[in-house]
Structure formats: structure tokens, C-alpha cells
Amino acid sequence: MASGLQVFGQPASTDVARVLTCLFEKNLEFDLVRIDTFKRQHKLPEFIRLRDPSGQVTFKHGDKTLVDPRAICRYLCTQFPNQGNRNLYGTGSLERASIEQWLQAEAQSFNPPSSALVFQLAFAPLLEIPQDHMVIAENERKLQQVLNVYDEILSKNEYLAGDEFTLADLSHLPDSQYLVSSERGMKLFTSRKNVARWFDQISSRKAWEQVVKMQMEHPGAFE
């Protein structure tokens, strides 16, 4: 078993949630050190403060420190290939290349508009910040274009990179979960049959359900 894995952050953070899901999928033991990055009630360890000023997520394994959630997931899959879900990062070079293409698509095309919508539709009301309806409309339009492409791909494949659940799908979960918590965000998924089916499948995985439970038990920044 792996030991010495530490995650610093709050489960409510989408970056932290992405890493936690990967850890659960890989059946890896880890310590979660909860850091409230909004209220700054905790003094950040020095290595976090220097490496990641935002403090959204920091992962430490021995003397290795990573702050990018997708890089952390890649690291976990390559460092512990035979533990837990072995298909998460593909079992061959072609599979991995396909997964990498989708990870880039998620980071470059899906994440920017979805993150903006998550803040406007889910976080702003909790933080009592007025919603910017122009920002919502613009990013909704961008995300619709992305999801139209996804819907076509998912009409042929069970999952984004093929017929197995991989990091390509996992990486979409945190933003998607927050989006479907609002009626407007939910329609982006339910109005597309294949996207709706896909999200139902990936969001019902045990690993993700564990993360959602942690988010509900410890809302962190929004308490």
C-alpha cells in the first residue's frame, strides 16, 4: 500500500475534489489536511505558501510536491499503476494518448466556461455575491458548443476516451457536479441525451460519491 500521501485543501474545491476522486479510484490511503483558502484561518505550511500562493490544492508524497490537479492524477496513475482502477490512465500508449487528448480538451475547452458558470451559478449565491448575467450567458454559449461535441462522441462511445471510465471522464466531475446543482446548469446536461447518460454513469461511481459525501460533511469555505 502507498503511504505518506498528503492532500492539502478543502473537498469543496474543484481542484481538490478531482485529486480525491483519483485517490479513491486507485484505492490509495492518504491524509487530507483541510486548509480554508477563503478565510485563511490556518497558517499554510511553508512549502505550500511558496509553491502554490492560491492554496487551492497541494499534493505531497515524500519530497515530491505537486499543485496542478491533473498532474497529480497523472502522477498517481503512473506511480501506482497496479493499485485500484488500472484502466484510469490507459493500459497502452494509444489509450493513454486518447486520454491525454481529452484531458487537454477538458482543461482548455470545458474548464474555462464551466468554472465561470460554477462560480456564477453555485458559489456566488452562497458567498452573497451578485451574479453577472452577461458572464453567465457568454459562458453558457461556450459550454453548449463543447457539450454538443461531447454528445456526438458519446453517441458512439460509452465514455469519452472509449468504453472504459478514465481520467478523461473523472476530470469533468467536479465542475459538472456543481453545474447540475442549479436548474440552469442541469439543463445543459439533460438537454443532451448522451451527455446526460454519461454524467449519470460517472457521477454514480463509488469514488465520486465518497467525495460528494466529504463535501457535504465539510463544506469548508462556505460554512
Automatic annotation (TrEMBL):
GO terms for cellular component: cytoplasm. This is glutathione transferase. The gene is LOC123098904. Coiled coil: none annotated. Conjugation of reduced glutathione to a wide number of exogenous and endogenous hydrophobic electrophiles. Gene3D superfamilies: 1.20.1050.10, Glutaredoxin. Its EC number is 2.5.1.18. It comes from Triticum aestivum (Wheat). InterPro entries: Glutathione-S-Trfase_C-like, Glutathione-S-Trfase_C_sf, Glutathione_S-Trfase, Glutathione_S-Trfase_N, GST_C, GST_Phi_C, Thioredoxin-like_sf.
